Amino acid sequence: MKRRDILKKTTLGIGAAMTAPILPALIQGCNNPNSAITSTASWVPEALSTEQGNLLIHFIDVIIPTNDTPSASETDTHHFIDFVVKDVMEEGEARQFISGIDQMEKDCINKHNKSFTLCDTETKVAVMASAKDSSFFKSLRSLTYRGYFSSEQGRTQNYQYTPIPGKYEPCMEMTENKRIVGNQI
Q1: Gap between the Cα atoms of 143 and 121, Å rounded
Q2: pTM of the model
Q3: Which of 96, 135, 142, 176 is the most exposed place for a label (fewest CB within 10 A)?
Q4: Percent of the chain with pLDDT over 90
Q5: What is the 3-state secondary structure (H, E, C) of 3-64?
Q6: How far apart are CA 71 and CA 149, in angstroms?
Q7: Where are the domains of the chain?
Q8: What is the model's pLDDT at position 185?
Q9: What is the DSSP letter of 73?
Q10: Do the Cβ atoms of 97 and 136 come closer than 8 Å?
């Protein structure tokens, strides 16, 4: 065998070994063009029960509601939080987070005689405000912000989005009050 043939076959073998694990995902992605897009109604939580997942959607939409930008649930932040609870949090921390969801619901029922999901917006805000000092709420708020601003919609529609690298301007006049944006350096 010639050296060139050995190099070709070795490269082919290494390439096949590296792509084999991701091949099923690539094929599955090709079969379903909307595989990355799931609606809130069809979402099935993995770490939470269906009822807790529904409550989570309502909680995060109070933290980041719809206005001129999408709400937290519209950016699938609830998927992110469910993933973190299932795969990232330690077992005790996850149990504490899940019990926080249940406790918030119980508090709402005790105060307002109805589920959080059935309350109007003002009542939801009041319930969330009453829990603002709890460790559950701080964790929920932090995860909501992380999930929201990690999404493409959260980054591009809420920040002053400047794609990098931007336009190159080699000679710029600088004045005292002009700030430099990252892509103008």
Answers
A1: 21
A2: 0.66
A3: 176
A4: 54
A5: HHHHHHHHHHHHHHHHHCCCHHHHHHHHHCCCCCCCCCCCCCCCCCCHHHHHHHHHHHHHHC
A6: 11
A7: 1-37, 39-158
A8: 41
A9: G
A10: yes
